[in-house]
């Protein structure tokens, strides 16, 4: 007579075993999430570094074509033209279509704060850091000025000797290497800056009258003793003046929605500040960099010696 094997019924998990399994899964997730976040941040920082590299190289391409660097803001393609440094660099980052939207190369509509025009309301991918907490919308408001995440060093592109008068102090007619007496590899030309900081936005195409909205840092005199104001600050109280000297050191990951975020200086959402140098390279600056070394690196012809922490 054939014999049949008796199968034992499957024993269900006890409550304790189930809790142990859940706990193990929770631990694995807790270990995995920070690792994934670190990978994402590393990728975002790499993209940010690449953006700054493109902007720095665009400056050199512009210099080769125009025999000088563009102004912080003002005419550069004829007497009727107007735009800031980021507008003038558009042809050199493959954005000719945006650059040519206005025949006279006047980048924004005169007096049109609500409707600034099709050029400066266009988000430019190269001008956006993927880690910035406020670039998802693209524009400060629908159809309005487009955000940017990088700022230009006024000490390089501006004309501090003209004093606190934006109509005259925005074009230093900088040249490589003539106006970089301290060396192009020792001079910061661009840094990161939050798209939104406190009550002010960084708008990549904004011009020379409202400096609290411009993609700018180090707005003040060459000696580092006086930060300049903006036109609206003088006449209508539109925000704080610029900062120069050691007080102008960058911020690492400040809360963008609080007054602790200082619109007069550069900010980064990374653990280090990415900067582009005059030689076209990109450098990562630790938060421990001294304020004095930072300022010396922002002056193209101050005659200072950079600290050992550079």
Can you walk through the features of this model?
This protein is 25% helix and 11% strand. It has a 5-stranded mixed β-sheet with strand order 7-3-4-10-11. The chain is globular. The longest helix has 52 residues, at 15-66. It has 6 helices and 11 strands.
Q: What is the number of beta strands?
A: 11
Low-confidence stretches: none
Q: Rg from C-alpha positions? A: 25 Å
Order of helices and strands: HEEHHEHEEEEHEEEEH
- Main sheet attributes: strand count, strand direction, barrel closure: 5 strands, mixed
Question: What is the average of the pLDDT values?
Answer: 89
Q: Helix amount, in percent?
A: 25-40%
The coarse overall form would be globular
Determine the structural class based on helices, strands and strand pairing. Answer: alpha+beta
Q: Provide the domain count.
A: 1
Strand line-up of the largest beta sheet: 7-3-4-10-11
Query: How many DSSP H or I helices?
Result: 6
Strand portion: 5-15%
Tell me the span between the first and last alpha carbons.
91 Å
